[in-house]
Write a structure and sequence with these properties.
By secondary structure, the chain is an alpha/beta fold. The chain contains four helices and five strands. The chain has a five-stranded mixed β-sheet, with helices on both faces. It is globular and about 35 Å long.
Length: 118
Amino acid sequence: MDDVPIFVFGINLAGRHGKGAALHARQHHGAVYGQGIGLQGRSYAIPTKDARVYTLPLPEIRKYVEEFKSFAAANPQFTFEVTAIGCGLAGYRPEQIGPMFKDSSANCILPDSFRSIL
């Protein structure tokens, strides 16, 4: 596996990396301002808010998490360090988001708050 993990973070669909993990991703992991989804630099964006920065409903977030899980499984050469997406500025609890990451591939490192639920 690649020795530098890819930082997985929550973002709005407008790609405004202005706060929290998204800002950290832009400053330290090559996230691209204006890109609100997918691989960018050494990071991967999972939308948790819409383009107007309103929190997305859980079924919509689940769709993006499933896309991420497929991407991670198809790229076993990388390690993905997943943050507690949706549990900061988006306002969800780990009990609501964590189960979405059930059956993630072995190259995904989940946060303790998600692992304790799974």
